[in-house]
Amino acid sequence: MAKLINGKEVSAQVKARVAAETEELKKKGIVPGLAVILVGDDPASQVYVRNKKRACEEVGFLSEEYRLAADVTQDELLSLIESLNARSDISGILVQLPLPKHLDEKAVLNVISPLKDVDAFQPVNVGRIMIGDYHFLPCTPAGVMELLKSADVDLCGKRAVVIGRSNIVGKPMAMLLMHENATVTICHSRTKDLPSVCREADVLVAAIGKAKFVTADFVKPGAAVIDVGMNRDENGKLCGDVDFDSVEPVAGCITPVPGGVGPMTIAMLMQNTLMAAKIQNGMIK
Ligand SMILES: Nc1nc2c(c(=O)[nH]1)N[C@@H](CN(C=O)c1ccc(C(=O)N[C@@H](CCC(=O)O)C(=O)O)cc1)CN2
Ligand SMILES: [Mg+2]
To answer: Which residues are listed for NADP(+) binding in this entry (predicted)?
Structure first.
């Protein structure tokens, strides 16, 4: 039986740490503030944005929410971001993704000040991650690293396989694992004989967006299996990219969905926003 890695528990620990530090910052007159921009009315995005606001309240941050109509123009969105860039009471800015098709996501992310880019999606921060000189890490990969640490998974010299090559998860995930001295392979839809590549992994991270895609034959006995997926199964039930029931008996440790990586995403956002407040107040160079 695999050890279950509990994302709810670890995310609560991260948020408690952030809340304690925020209390100290407030004594110096510094209040971290997060602005979240939601364009359109995608129901899942609405839930995530609501949860981000709730997390801000939990850790003692100021939070502002901007709900823009689905047909907002690119110029309107860019000017909102520019006005938030200029405000000293806003430490972090986040644009909830995905954006409606008529908006240019790259141009939108580009305009966020790198000092307030708490998602770490802005090209300056992406580059800094590449060279290992960063303040902000993208929330989901950072959350995965925190979960691996909580489960005492040793990465040094180990084989790690990441399935998925998105800019938001797969690519930065591979970098973070490499910074911890793992030997990393990135797989994707064109990878030949995917199960046999995955079977070499001591640490397997699934971020492909296909329900229950990773089955027991992808998993080396005793491996750490991290499921970044969020899908609906044939009955409409939330499930990950990993077929939990078949993989759990083979893995050494495993994250569930829900309750694994998901809650970490928001906890790490709180950590990044705290970091942004410290940077803007000259506490970190
Ligand atoms: N600007 C961003 N957009 C998006 C991000 C992001 O990090 N920044 N990530 C995802 C959505 N997301 C946060 O925004 C997110 C997704 C899932 C969860 C979560 O807690 N999931 C729960 C299950 C929730 C449910 O029941 O539906 C879990 O896995 O336990 C948090 C945040 C895309 N967009
Ligand atoms: Mg989860």
So the answer is: 164-166
Share of the chain above pLDDT 70, in %: 100
Among the four given CATH numbers 3.40.1580.10, 3.40.50.10860, 3.40.50.720, 1.25.10.10, the one describing domain 139-262? 3.40.50.720
Q: Does residue 50 have a known ligand-binding role?
A: no
On whether ipTM exceeds 0.85, the answer is: yes
Enter the pTM of the model: 0.97
Best mutation site among 6, 10, 42, 48 for ligand 1 pocket (most ligand atoms within 8 Å of CB): 48
Which distant-in-sequence residues (6+ apart) come within 8 Å of 285 by Cβ?
none
> Mind listing the pLDDT tens digit for each residue in 240-257?
999 999 999 999 999 999
